[in-house]
Amino acid sequence: MLVTGLVKMMGQSLTLKGAGMNLIEAIQDRCNFIRKQIIPAYIAIGLNGSIGKILLENDIKQAEAAIASGDVTRMISILASLRETCERAQ
């Protein structure tokens, strides 16, 4: 419940798919969605999609760095950003 408390303090809601999904799994799930669904769409656009692709890849690198660092606050912020990216794409 620490994660939920931190999210409420940041003024954001956190919805994790499935009762057993933790913060790291949620970030990895969003990164996989971006890799498999969103980035290929940007690649299909061609040259105009290359900037978006680079930005998305940078977001994934930041998410992986946050997981590696173990910084929960940073992971929550990254998850909110990734979730927003995924919601805009759907």
Polypeptide structure, described:
This protein has 90 residues and is mainly alpha-helical. It has one domain. Helix content is 77%, strand content 0%. The chain is built from four helices and no strands. Helix 2 runs antiparallel to helix 3, helix 2 packs parallel to helix 4 and helix 3 runs antiparallel to helix 4. The N terminus is likely disordered.
Contiguous low-pLDDT stretches (5 residues minimum) are 1-15
- Structural class, please? mainly alpha
Count of individual beta strands: 0
Which sheet architecture does the biggest sheet show? none
Cα gyration radius (Å): 14 Å
* Count of runs of 4 or more consecutive helical residues: 4
Span from first to last CA? 29 Å
| Portion in helices | over 70%
List the quaternary state of the chains: single chain
Approximately what portion of the residues adopt beta-strand conformation? under 5%
The outline comes out as elongated
The topology string of helices and strands comes to HHHH
Average pLDDT rating: 83
Number of domains: 1
SSE order and pairing:
Layout: H1 2-9, H2 23-45, H3 50-69, H4 72-89
Helix pairs in contact: 2-3, 2-4, 3-4
